[in-house]
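// run 5 | inverse folding | seed 20
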């Protein structure tokens, strides 16, 4: 909805690492936690309001994620598929609060860590991870419920083209429970997806030129590639 930065949260690496260490000590996170295959993440340097949740709460995310999210949502709407965000950016302190709340509910730390990453290891810190829900489906986390939705089917087929990838499929090596609602934006993969999409558009939008190029290609294979690259480069960048 808006791309105006609303919050700069980047802190020095040292203070960030100190905050993480203090939280791990307090929460009794096992010292070998870092060896479980989860990636360490820093908090986002810049966040924007990507959208408001159904209760009007601001969903903060990294700017390029917000832009790609907007494009993806518009593409889904064309096919009458609707989804929205339940959770986006999360600070390490909020992550710690979730673990504290689980503990207060009587959940063991071991069990909590199968569905909640320890502070410093959640993709939500980056502002690129989004928990997606849809009208009528139960709030996250309800694995089977969300997997049966039209929204999930659409995301499975199309989200990669917009740079969003499901981080924790079934039997993921990180040992996190399957999270079909959790999608993370990867800029580099998004650019690859857009480049492929452009080539596809080019192929289908210029049938006459395409036909000509096929003739040229039969005689001078290298020439068509140069022409294709030049035309793709001339188009305005659609990457997020
Ligand atoms: Zn998530």
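// decoded
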């Amino acid at each position: 909805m808006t791309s105006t930065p609303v919050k700069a949260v980047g802190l020095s690496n040292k203070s960030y690492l100190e905050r993480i260490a203090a939280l791990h000590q307090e929460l009794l996170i096992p010292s070998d936690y870092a060896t479980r295959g989860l990636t360490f993440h820093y908090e986002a340097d810049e966040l924007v309001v990507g959208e408001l949740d159904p209760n009007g709460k601001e969903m903060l995310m990294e700017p390029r994620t917000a832009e790609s999210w907007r494009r993806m949502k518009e593409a889904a709407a064309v096919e009458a598929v609707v989804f929205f965000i339940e959770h986006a950016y999360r600070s390490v302190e909020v992550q710690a609060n979730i673990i504290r709340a689980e503990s207060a509910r009587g959940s063991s730390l071991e069990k909590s860590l199968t569905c909640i990453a320890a502070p410093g290891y959640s993709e939500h810190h980056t502002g690129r991870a989004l928990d997606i829900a849809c009208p009528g489906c139960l709030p996250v986390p309800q694995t089977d419920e969300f997997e049966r939705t039209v929204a999930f089917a659409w995301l499975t087929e199309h989200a990669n083209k917009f740079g969003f990838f499901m981080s924790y499929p079934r039997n993921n090596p990180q040992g996190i429970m399957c999270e079909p609602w959790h999608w993370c934006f990867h800029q580099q993969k998004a650019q690859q997806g857009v480049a492929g999409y452009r080539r596809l558009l080019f192929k289908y939008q210029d049938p006459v030129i395409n036909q000509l190029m096929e003739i040229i290609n039969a005689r001078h294979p290298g020439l068509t590639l140069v022409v294709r690259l030049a035309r793709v480069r001339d188009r305005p960048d659609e990457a997020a």
